[in-house]
Design a protein that fits this description.
single chain; mainly alpha; 2 domains; flat; about 140 residues; 5 helices
């Protein structure tokens, strides 16, 4: 985003960056909601391989045009996306741990460590299987591209 005639003071840069970050955060949440409600399917999800392919294309375009704002926006989107995903109440992620802490707060007693560990281990296996499936999908998409 290029703003002509706007002073680039530390305050305006911070304010604009904050507003853009909130906008990206909102977009990530809405996209996640659309995925859960079926507006998007798992076919529309990309893992590390697909993201690298997409970022590579954006980087090449940025070099051609000498305009890196698109690439920087993608990097911000990826960073915020990872942060949002990590806070989801999914076992093995930080959000899963926060969910257990919330349960302990409501119950007023701790959950046995062996049960929590088991839930996180199962969650990790499911996440790894999901990540493997998405990675294979991305590799297949690169092959037929």
């Amino acid at each position: 985003i290029v703003m002509v005639g706007v002073d680039k003071t530390a305050g305006t840069v911070f304010k604009d960056t904050f507003k853009e970050s909130v906008s990206i955060f909102r977009m990530v949440w809405l996209s996640l909601f659309d995925l859960v409600t079926g507006k998007y399917s798992v076919k529309d999800v990309s893992g590390p391989v697909g993201v690298v392919d997409y970022v590579s294309d954006a980087a090449q375009e940025s070099v051609k045009t000498a305009d890196y704002t698109g690439l920087l926006s993608i990097m911000a989107l990826i960073t915020i996306n990872i942060g949002v995903f990590n806070l989801l109440p999914i076992p093995a992620l930080d959000g899963g741990r926060l969910f257990f802490l919330l349960i302990e707060l409501v119950r007023r007693k701790p959950i046995k460590q062996k049960y929590e560990s088991l839930v996180h281990a199962i969650g990790m296996v499911i996440l790894l299987l999901f990540m493997a499936a998405i990675t294979f999908k991305d590799i297949y998409a690169l092959i037929v591209k």
